[in-house]
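Histidinol dehydrogenase
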Amino acid sequence: MQTVIWKQLNSEQQLQVLSRPAVNSSTDIAGIVADVVSQVREQGDKALIDLAAKFDNTELSAVRISQQEIEAAEQGLSEEFKQAVAQAKANIEVFHQAQKPQPISLETQPGVRCEMHYAAIGNVGLYVPGGTAPLPSTVLMLAIPARIAGCKKVVLSSPPPIAPEILYTANLCGVDEVYAAGGAQAIAAMAYGTESVSKADKIFGPGNAFVTQAKQQVSGDHAGAAIDMPAGPSEVLVIADDKANPAFVAADLLSQAEHGPDSQVILVTTSEQQAEAVNQELARQLALLSRNNIADQALSHSTAIVVNDLAQAVQVSNLYGPEHLIVQTEQARDLLPEIENAGSVFLGEWTPESVGDYASGTNHTLPTYGYTRTYSSLGTLDFMKRFTVQELSQQGLKDLSRAVVPIANAEGLDAHRRAVTLRLGEEQ
Ligand SMILES: NC(=O)c1ccc[n+]([C@@H]2O[C@H](COP(=O)([O-])OP(=O)(O)OC[C@H]3O[C@@H](n4cnc5c(N)ncnc54)[C@H](O)[C@@H]3O)[C@@H](O)[C@H]2O)c1
Ligand SMILES: N[C@H](CO)Cc1c[nH]c[nH+]1
Ligand SMILES: [Zn+2]
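Tokens:
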């Protein structure tokens, strides 16, 4: 990991240090995805079977996983895994149940009642990544809020062959249908439907550059589906002071580096010695990891930034807008009021990012690539929509006509005015 001194960089160099790695810059991802999407729209299941052979090296006999296969998945799994999933599920349920919105009902003026109601999105499609590692935890993060929101139909797609841990967790969380499809083809199938795949109104879930591009393409088409957010390759930024334990800091950086070669990890520290100590720890701990070649590639485009003080550390973090922000400083909570752009924040030395990935209760589906400026972490509300209601009494309409009629006149919209005045007997 290269180390830079923030104040020695000009503003262009500062932005360069915080730029995301170009993902497969030699590959025309948008073009490949557009071809895959049209192949799925034209050929349905046949395309999914052909693309599974091409991209996932898997010969599929059917796209939809049968209920027997789903139930059989439990057999090979350990009690330890099942209990871990049960504990994580309970915590995620508590936190997402608490997010269920309360309806609003009030009078804005006497006789004029306004209300806000919420309804679940009908059919939702969940994408669970499986290219470099199967992620059963992502099933929990997507299916639990879908069920709490009350979605009618919840379907899930993941690259074949689907790990039994994913099938078991999907069944436990009440997923209705599971499909063996990965990448852009899975997103296209859930957006438009095929013989085996049910069309979804909205598609959720993280994935690689192909998945993220496909989500963007189908959401731009009226016949396609809405999407949650661009949730791409994992990122973490750690703010550490001179007192932080470099072994803990390095462990947190590596936990995101191991997700993929296009992951990005950044250290922002007030101490040059800390940056050096973390670099030494990275080298020591990297050798202990099974996916060390992946983590090593991610570290090659990651940086340690030395700043003047913690206020500047937060400014750098806000500029980058990380998916995960870990604060390992003496008074970590003190920085919270200044944090503007982050998907999920981890405070203090006892809060590694892995707890949010799996089991604390927060959602690990988070905006990446700087989208934290405008998007939020996934929650129950994303599986719902809201609508307003109004109801007026006769007197309420009479009083409110003093606001409606002049504005309708100013807009030259006679029919709007007449819908009020006719009721009040002021016009025929
Ligand atoms: N932001 C978040 O909330 C979040 C959460 C979990 C995981 N992630 C990220 O999700 C990503 C998962 O990526 P992954 O690759 O492991 O799994 P994935 O399931 O997203 O992608 C695998 C699929 O990509 C397609 N693919 C691969 N190479 C292709 C090519 N050359 N052309 C066309 N299609 C191709 C294949 O169809 C394959 O099935 C990681 O980057 C991880 O960091 C993000
Ligand atoms: N850190 C990932 C989100 O960027 C989520 C995850 C799943 N499993 C492990 N981690
Ligand atoms: Zn992770």
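The chain has three domains: 2-21+233-361, 29-110+118-230, 393-428.
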